[in-house]
Amino acid sequence: MFSIYGITGQVYSGTLETMNRVHAISKARASRPIAQDGDETGTEAMTSMAGRINEDAVRAYLAMLPQDIDRGPLYHAEQIMQHNVITVLADHNVAWAWRTLRDHRIHQAPVLNEVSQLVGIVSERDLLTAINIDAGQIVESLGRRVRDVMTTPVIAASPVTDIRRIASVMLDNGVDGAPITNDNGRLVGFISRSDILRAVVTDPPLSLWR
User: Fold this and answer.
1) pLDDT-derived band at 128, boundaries 50, 70, 90
2) pLDDT, greater one: 92 or 27
3) Which helix or strand (DSSP H or E) is residue 171 part of?
4) Which of 22, 54, 84, 153 has the least C-beta neighbours within 10 A?
5) Closest by alpha carbon to 79, among 185, 202, 186?
6) Is the dihedral of CA 55, 73, 198, 172 positive or negative?
7) Stretch 41-50: mean pLDDT, rounded?
8) Which residues pair with 3 in a beta bridge?
9) Which CATH number among 3.40.50.2300, 3.10.580.10, 3.30.9.10, 3.30.43.10 corresponds to the domain 2-23+72-209?
């Protein structure tokens, strides 16, 4: 289950499929390769042949696998999320927020309003649009607030969300983390790319791919 939070509060709650159909969230797309399948004359037959070869290869690989292979448990957000979440306030100045991220050695943080509601997420990259750093110290600041540079709306997930779906949202929307909120919309955790990668390399190694 996913939710979308903006500066006015929660604007969506539902499944990933419905969210993708209803809400147009800004997404980072990879560059389209030159001469993609079907772009040039004669590629249709080659594409069809490649598809048949790939299907044969997949069937051969599956036939080799043991039928009783134990792929382990499916991970949910609550199993791998960070419970002690470092947050910043929307009204904090960017210099203070940058020092908070630096002191806690993190690269992003959820943003809350004055009543502790999730309204966005801010990263080092966002903050560096308003400050200049030299040798790890702020040498110039434009005096802007976190609300001026943060990303909003922000997509959050519930604690029981499959982390494969969370990873899909991160990739599709070009973000490096996802806040985790409970049924009341309160922030209860955070999942970063590093958290998901740690889950991938934890035994059993195929837990995520059932």
Assistant:
1) confident
2) 92
3) helix 163-173
4) 84
5) 202
6) positive
7) 48
8) 13, 156
9) 3.10.580.10
Backbone angles phi, psi at 2, to 5 degrees: -125, 155
Torsion of CA 149, 83, 105, 132, to 10 degrees: 10
Cβ neighbours around 166 below 10 Å, total: 26
Distance of CA 50 to the CA centre of its chain: 32
The burial of 103, by beta-carbon neighbours within 10 Å (0-12 exposed, 13-18 middle, 19 or more buried), is given as exposed
Amino acid at 128: L
pLDDT in tens, 5-26: 888 888 888 888 788 776 655 4
Q: Which helix (H) or strand (E) holds 20?
A: helix 16-22
pLDDT by residue (tens digit) across 61-113?
556 655 554 445 568 899 999 999 999 999 999 989 989 999 999 999 999 99
* Among 196, 195, 191, 173, CA closest to 181: 191
The dihedral formed by the CA atoms of 109, 110, 111 and 116, expressed in degrees to the nearest 10: -130
Give pTM, 2 decimals.
0.69
Using an 8 Å Cβ cutoff, are 108 and 177 in contact? yes
Q: Is the peptide bond before 204 cis (omega within 30 degrees of 0)?
A: yes
3-state secondary structure (DSSP) of residue 16: helix
Q: Which bin fits 117, alpha (ψ -120 to 50), beta or left (φ > 0)?
A: beta
